[in-house]
Here is the input.
Amino acid sequence: MIEQADPAEQAADQQAVQQQTPERDLALDMVRRGLIGGPVLVGVCTGIWGWDGLWSSGYALGLILVNFWLAASLITWSLRISATLLMAAVLGGYFIRLGILTGAYFLVRNIAWFDALPFVITLVAAHIVLLVWETRYVSMSLAYPGLKPQGVRS
Amino acid sequence: MLALISTILAQLTGDGEAGLKAIGGGLGFGLAAIGPGLGIGILVGNAITAMARQPESAAMARTTMFLGIAFTEAIALIGFVVFILLAP
Here is the structure.
């Protein structure tokens, strides 16, 4: 026999889900790591492609960080409303963010300082390196629902 | 069909190779976006199921879901890179 859930308990669970923002914490942590580690990648691109490499690589790094932050904000915002909206927001957001990336590329593709190679290298490398870096950190603190609270040792 | 589009593009651009590159880039980007779209749908669907079954573990499910979405998106990014590199 299936037990009926207590409405008060359900409401408390719902409130707890709405109050937590683990994905936004993760995204902000990734932005922080991107601002720390990103200049290394931008520096390498500058060394190889000069000033064009610097601007193109910096532009790509900025796009990736905005992309992470936007994805997390969409999830947090939609989960405060409903789980159905989460599905729509994540899938719709995926296509919108791809559109923004494509639009951002078309915006600068004919400008003199833009170089496609450092742009794409930074785009893929920054995305994957930041994700692996964050996943490694989260995996080490899986007892917590996202980032480990500061000051806690495990 | 592809030959027709290629011919039209070749006439518009005056360069057959550029037309084929444009088609290849567009197809590559489009095809590379299908897989992650399916993956994200499955991922979010299962995360919602997990949150509904165990609301006390919702934060854990959301953390894993966010990282999963970002990893899945990397495949679409690679398609985007191919599109940029092939764009005339």
Remarks:
- Helices of chain B lie at 2-13, 16-53, 58-86.
- The CA atoms of residues 33 and 76 of chain B lie 5 Å apart.
- The interface with chain A takes residues 33, 36-37, 40-41, 44-45, 48, 51-52, 55-60, 62-63, 65-67, 69-71, 73-74, 76-78, 80-81, 83-85, 87 of chain B (CB under 8 Å).
- The radius of gyration of chain B is 19 Å.
